[in-house]
Amino acid sequence: MNQFTYLRIYRIVSMAIRFYLQVSIFQRRNRGKWTPVVEQRWNELVTRQAKEYKELALKLGGLMIKLGQFLSTRADIMPPSFLAELEGLTDRVPSVPRKDIIEVLEQEWNVEHSNYLSELSEAAIASASIGEVYKGRLKNGTEVAVKVQRPGTDRIIRADFQAMRIVIWLAKKFTPFTKQVDFDQLYVEMTETIGAELNFVRELQNGRAFSDRFAEMNGVHIPLYYDEYTTRRVLVMEWIEGARITDISFIEEHGLDRHEISERLFILFLEQVLYGGQFHADPHGGNILLRPDGTIVLIDFGMIGTISERDSQAILLIAEGILFKNYEQVLDGLEDLRFLLPHADRNLLEDAVERLVAAYESNELMQMDSFVVERLLKDMQDIVRTQPVQLPAEFAFFGRAASIFVGVLHVLDPNVDLFALARPRVLEWASTKREGKGIFGKEDVLRWVLNSTGPARVFPKKLINFLEEPEKMRNYLENKEGREREHQRDMQSRMFAGIFALVSFTGISLSVWFWHEAFLWVSSVFFVGSLWAFRAIR
């Protein structure tokens, strides 16, 4: 292992250790006194950490950017201020000199690049931490995109994975995150998903698979790939003229319908999840292009995730439960997906899901009083942190992909109604699943009857919730004031216990100095009792 690798690992691991120590010291100093002032200092700390991470990630590139993008979607384990700072972290790095790219091309092809290409652009069209894309022209005049792996990428990624093994070991030993994340499985998922990006032959195979799956879908195009020019570090594919799908000026210039495009894009993503199991794991605006005629072009199949048949059935349960307001079924599906552990408080979680769905459907998250919105979101965060909720490692990149994709949809159409778009497609998918079985079982009939009566069943509960909302708000405020008073009493008690401990310790010191045995025993008893009281009061 050379000096460069050691230095890279040192910078990543030392930053992680520093973050762990800062968080641990902060929590110890402020245990039992979580006030608004303390919360503000906590947000300032994690914001500084996020800025430091982002700065180092942009400087080092490689796995650090991919990991930062992943962390920016983990609201279940990362503080909101950390997420906000990492949001928008993009994998864009300065391009390497053209001569270095040509050197890689000729190493892979074993001939001069001019034997295959009559033209190659002077500068990279796109540049990321793993590969760079140039525009080229084959000898027969066909325009192509030539993706070339950056020199030294293998060495960088290997060093980053070694650093991540150390960081994960530290996280398992010294942080509470193991309750919510299976770090060992997550590491395996990272190596399989991100590691696959290093082999462009895999990307070609993935692209071909997607092309076969969506060949009949109107308004969707997957580029053509060229086997004869593709190697592990070089990928040659059809050149696509178009713009990023989030380029609103391009859409308006060509008179395209943003709402219709967002509908087609949503169906494209939903089809990936519901049929076949594979999905594009990096669907940001740069990987989804739009032609002047409105055709959606999906590119860059380096990161691909897979959803098993068993998990797709659980997704069906969740989708049906949400559409038909059967939130108990939603929790059943989440349990089947291993998101919930058996001892979770189902009543609490069912209420949380119902409140979130209701807030989304009525657009209340945009219209409600800021205090109510803040209370709702804080309650959700508290539930995620306190309940036995976990993100299975195999869904880590699905969560990231879904988050990125929804962001793209809302740029296209801020008023997009995901439930309205999903409802007919999910029902069609559900019926297809059952036709595929050849059976419509008693359990299916019973569940669909119950689901169909969902709105009628939940109406009384909605009415009760509406009538009880002022009472709930009053109880919330009263409980909040009660917790604050209790916190103040605890702080006063700890202060008195600390004073007694200090006085009794002084008594011990004096009794030892003057050798007063009776006074020594009395002071010792008071000192031990004060320490016990100080630790017992939280």
Automatic annotation (TrEMBL):
InterPro entries: ABC1_dom, Kinase-like_dom_sf, UbiB_kinase. It holds the Pfam family ABC1. Keywords: Kinase, Membrane, Transferase, Transmembrane, Transmembrane helix. The chain crosses the membrane at residues 495-513, 519-537. Coiled coil: none annotated. Residues 89-331 form the ABC1 atypical kinase-like domain. It comes from the Bacteria. GO terms for molecular function: kinase activity. Belongs to the protein kinase superfamily. ADCK protein kinase family. This is ABC1 kinase family protein.
